[in-house]
Amino acid sequence: MRLSYRVSLYASFLITVAVPILLSFIFFQTFLRETARNEFYSQTERVAHGVTEEIKRRSESLLLLAGNYAKDRLILSAAASRDRVLLEERLSELYRYSNLDLLEVGDSNGYVLARGHRPMEYGEQKSSQLIIKNALKGRQDADIEYGASGIALRAVAPIFSTPGKPTGTLMTGVLLNRDFFDIYKTITGFDIALFEGDTLIASTWLNAAGVASKLPRHNPKDSPQLARVIFKLNRGEMWGVSIPVYHMSGSPLGSLLLWRERNAILKPLRVNQLTLALSFIVTCILAAILAVFLSRNFSSPLKKMLPVMDLVSRGEMATPIPDLRWKEFQELSRHFRNMVSELKKSQDKIMRTQQQLLVAAKFAILGQVTAELAHEVRNPLNSMEITLRLLKEEIKEGRQHTPAIAERIECLHAEIKRLDQTIRDFVEAGGSITLRKSSSNLAEETRAVLALAKPQIEMLGIALKVYLDDELSVDIDRNRFHQAVLNILLNACQSMKPGGTLSIEGERVGARAVLTIRDTGVGMTKEEKSRIFDFPFTTKSDGTGCGLPYVLRIIQAHGGEFDIDSEPGAGTTVRIFFSINSKKGTS
To answer: Cβ contacts of residue 4 below 8 Å, gap of 6+?
Structure first.
């Protein structure tokens, strides 16, 4: 089923506008919720650390105070003699000057000897309490106790009347009443619960005893760090943190739970959610209106372009392309003009290819003509050369010897050689090429060609740079390869002035060997470069135009590639590509 343009545009706007907005709406809601949650947890953690630090500070203060009082001279003396009256007087005195709610001394059996906060009360057995046991073993300890007076934070220190075994204990303590936690709730808005093991000690939540089993516990032994918790309480979801509480010795005192109802945390976000929902609805309406408007305005430019495209498809490249109103359609019109221009270039390229085929046909005809010409011309040339050689020898032997005659003979001999070389060039350029390939080392063969060209290179005062990879093996006809490379080298030398530089590089590029010949000569213009293979074009006064076409035919006969780059005044770079031979030996 094919959709119309307008339906497609509506669907596109629904996908590209409405869906991203909906996803953004969902994402932003989630982002706000997570931001609020993270901010809540961050604030809760700060409050939790503040409460635990306050409890820890009080615990440390109590431990320090208990240790100091346990070393009091009067208390040591009275505890050693079990003088209850003296102990009560000293404890009552210390109690009046301290902020303690609990101050008492026990004997080595765990019985209370005297109390400063409740004089005349003694005899209570506390040997079963852990902190008393630890103190009688010579260690200070602290805990949280829930007793008749309320929640007490206690610290106990051993009394050593004589060195060695403790003779009693001294306990200090303060009450952590509900007011202590209510103050934090009033300031921060968090509910707080304090646990000792699995026992709920205190909480700011009303009827905490009835919901104690639903509150999560934090076992410091399992997780010594702060933990985030989510739990249900009275049909509401609560977010909070649980943090262990330690005293100065490092042993756990209990755990602290701070929480708040989720709805109360997210309530400030409702305004943002309503704003987002309204924005989403308004945006969808505007998107629908825009889709209708654009669908109607986009149809007109397309209708103008369709007839033009139809004419171009029939080959009428000169068809005028209309100017469109919308910027996007102007861009489309520009691209269409570029496409038509590329089509014209392709046609031109096809015509150039046809011209190259004609050149190839010329070379084929030239091959036939030059073969016959060579046969007819070489015979008399050979006879003339032999006759001149004999005549030259006779003159040298003294028969009618004159310098003018010898000079003319030499001139005639040179012209015969030049004419013979010209005929050879024509034959080789137009005739077929037969290769006798063998596996050869590219570096060695290149150096062999350099040895032939080196005298001319030195005579012209040209600097030579050679970088050849000695591990490149290629299948080539050595003679043809020498002819092609020598032709390129001589061309490069003839294009340079004394002081120029000729660089030759041989390297591996992928699975191919590349021979690069670079000169610093006069270079070529674009027009000259485009005609270098157009026989009989030449830039030399005495050239035949056969050299580079012959080089190209040799490289192509080897299955290689020939590439040339040149700029006027910057020199010329020729690259020859051969397939690397992985096998050694003659092929």
So the answer is: none
Alpha-carbon torsion, ordered 231, 232, 236, 240, to 10 deg: -20
- Read off the pLDDT band of 587 (50, 70, 90): very low
Looking at domain 323-432, its CATH architecture is Orthogonal Bundle (1.10)
Phi-psi map region of 530: left, alpha, beta (phi>0 left; psi -120 to 50 alpha) = alpha
Distance CA 339, CA 334 (A): 9
| Domain spans in the chain, listed from the N-terminal domain onward | 59-175, 323-432, 438-579
59-175 to CATH, choices 3.30.450.20, 3.30.70.270, 3.30.390.50, 3.40.50.300: 3.30.450.20
Tell me the per-residue pLDDT of 218-245, one tens digit each, with 9 for 90 and over: 555 555 577 788 878 777 788 888 878 7
Burial of 27 from C-beta contacts in 10 A (0-12 / 13-18 / 19+): exposed
Which range in 192-196, 313-317, 373-377 is most confidently predicted, on average pLDDT? Answer: 192-196
* Mean local confidence (pLDDT), 306-327: 72
DSSP string, 337-395: HHHHHHHHHHHHHHHHHHHHHHHHHHHHHHHHHHHHHHHHHHHHHHHHHHHHHHHHHHH
